[in-house]
């Protein structure tokens, strides 16, 4: 399925990424942010239901100057500490800042979040290629799109959907800026089970890929 996931990422389709039984045990929708439409955001909030975030390649995050939230908020005394994340105590969360594009109104509508994500991808592309787009002239924080900064060693260090989605984008040769959202279960109050996420994929013709498959491909191909 990994080859199909790479192909679907290339084609701008939503793919379903499961992390690991030993980690969150969650499945996220993931789509390259430059292909994202307002229909995709609508589908994310209705069918997936989790938090809509945009994952960013570490190289671009570094160039743009996007901090980890845990670093930026340290002096408040509220920032997460080492070992705080129960399913991944060796790493901190990938959360960075939250942004809105300055041409949005409230920032939360499907149109607004789509504009924010699409333009984020332009900035990531520029940063990856040594360009000089001015981030702060186009985005403001706080906002309604959570940015996720992928680990600088990607899957060699951290194995969340942040890194899984960026690794797949790298393999696909597309701009490594991917909008993701967890699939939740309306009936149980929990994350949607792997089995149900796979069934959703089958029913809607979306590729489902597991972290194990991505990791095996990563270890053999990078
Ligand atoms: C943001 C999250 C999600 O779990 C998302 O999948 C990214 O986090 P991670 O890389 O840790 O899996 O917490 O909604
Ligand atoms: Zn999470
Ligand atoms: Ca996750």
UniProtKB/TrEMBL annotation:
Pathway: Cofactor biosynthesis; riboflavin biosynthesis; 2-hydroxy-3-oxobutyl phosphate from D-ribulose 5-phosphate: step 1/1. It catalyses: D-ribulose 5-phosphate = (2S)-2-hydroxy-3-oxobutyl phosphate + formate + H(+). SUPFAM superfamilies: YrdC/RibB. Its EC number is 4.1.99.12. Its cofactor is Mg(2+); Mn(2+). InterPro entries: DHBP_synth_RibB-like_a/b_dom, DHBP_synthase_RibB. Gene3D superfamilies: DHBP synthase. GO terms for molecular function: 3,4-dihydroxy-2-butanone-4-phosphate synthase activity; metal ion binding. One of its GO terms (cellular component) is cytosol. Binds 2 divalent metal cations per subunit. Magnesium or manganese. It comes from the Archaea. One of its GO terms (biological process) is riboflavin biosynthetic process. It holds the Pfam family DHBP_synthase. Keywords: Lyase, Magnesium, Manganese, Metal-binding, Riboflavin biosynthesis. Catalyzes the conversion of D-ribulose 5-phosphate to formate and 3,4-dihydroxy-2-butanone 4-phosphate. Belongs to the DHBP synthase family. Homodimer. PANTHER family: 3,4-DIHYDROXY-2-BUTANONE 4-PHOSPHATE SYNTHASE (PTHR21327:SF46), GTP CYCLOHYDROLASE II-RELATED (PTHR21327). NCBIfam families: ribB. This is 3,4-dihydroxy-2-butanone 4-phosphate synthase. It comes from Methanolacinia petrolearia (strain DSM 11571 / OCM 486 / SEBR 4847) (Methanoplanus petrolearius).
């Amino acid at each position: 399925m990994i080859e199909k996931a790479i192909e679907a990422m290339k084609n701008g389709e939503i793919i379903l990424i499961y992390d690991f039984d030993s980690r969150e045990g969650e499945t996220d929708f993931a789509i390259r942010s430059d292909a994202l439409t307002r229909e995709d955001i609508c589908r994310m909030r209705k069918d997936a239901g989790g938090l809509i975030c945009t994952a960013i390649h570490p190289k671009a995050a570094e160039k743009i100057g996007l901090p980890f939230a845990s670093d930026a908020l340290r002096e408040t005394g509220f920032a997460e500490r080492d070992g705080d994340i129960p399913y991944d105590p060796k790493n901190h969360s990938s959360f960075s800042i939250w942004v809105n594009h300055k041409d949005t109104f409230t920032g939360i509508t499907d149109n607004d979040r789509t504009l924010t994500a699409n333009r984020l991808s332009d900035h990531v592309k520029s940063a990856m290629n040594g360009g000089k787009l001015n981030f702060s002239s186009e985005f403001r924080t706080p906002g309604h799109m959570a940015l996720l900064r992928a680990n600088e060693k990607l899957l060699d260090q951290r194995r969340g959907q942040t890194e899984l989605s960026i690794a797949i984008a790298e393999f696909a040769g597309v701009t490594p800026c991917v909008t993701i959202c967890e699939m939740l279960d309306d009936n149980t109050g929990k994350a949607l089970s792997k089995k149900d996420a796979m069934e959703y994929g089958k029913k809607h013709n979306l590729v489902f890929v597991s972290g194990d498959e991505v990791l095996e491909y990563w270890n053999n191909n990078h």
